[in-house]
Amino acid sequence: MDFSLAVSSRLSFPYKKVPLPDGNFDWLPIVPVQLSRSTFLTTQFEAIADTGAFDCLFHADIAEAVGIKDITTGIVKPSGGIVKGLPIFIYGHEVRLVIGSDNFKIQAFFSTELSVSALLGRNGFFDKYIVTFDPSGDSPSFSLSRLRKK
């Protein structure tokens, strides 16, 4: 088997400046994405590229937008580190992740307890792209280079 990979396309995004409670600010790597399932397609929304997240996590409201009426019908598993305290339960469903003109199947996990709209994790995002973070300069940015099997 040939497991060699090729880079096929490149996208670049500025970091988003986000205010902090202490009056300072931070920069976050935000990717504009959409989810699709069957005939449903969400409007574009912001997702944080999170190298610490194992899975791609989405708020339950987004599940409704792609026709998932009850997230608890999906594959259930506990997830820690998202909400302070006890682990939360997340529910997996197969959807397509759309980034620019690119789209592919992922196992997306949904929760009502997620405090942001979406986190893009290692399984489903970072395994599909080479991500280059460039925090230098006045306008930090990051780029995505799509990996494809040869």
Extended strand count: 13
Outline, from the CA principal axes?
globular
Number of DSSP helical runs: 1
Largest sheet: 6 strands, mixed, barrel
Structural class: mainly beta
What would you say this structure looks like, in words?
The chain has one helix and 13 strands, in the order βββββββαββββββ. The protein has 150 residues and is mainly beta. The protein has a single domain (5-17, 30-149), classed as Beta Barrel (Cathepsin D, subunit A, domain 1). Strands 4-6-11-7-10-9 form a six-stranded mixed beta barrel. A three-stranded antiparallel sheet has the order 1-13-12, with no helix packed on it. Strands 2-3 form a two-stranded antiparallel ribbon. The longest helix is centred in the middle third of the chain and has 6 residues, at 60-65. It is globular, with a radius of gyration of 16 Å.
Question: Notable features of this structure?
Answer:
150 residues; mainly beta; 6-stranded mixed barrel; 3-stranded antiparallel sheet; 1 helix; 55% strand; globular
List the helices and strands and how they pair.
Blueprint: E1 5-14, E2 16-19, E3 25-28, E4 30-37, E5 40-41, E6 45-49, E7 56-59, H1 60-65, E8 75-79, E9 88-99, E10 102-111, E11 118-120, E12 129-134, E13 141-149
Parallel strand pairs: 6-11, 7-10
Antiparallel strand pairs: 1-13, 2-3, 4-5, 4-6, 4-9, 7-11, 8-9, 9-10, 12-13
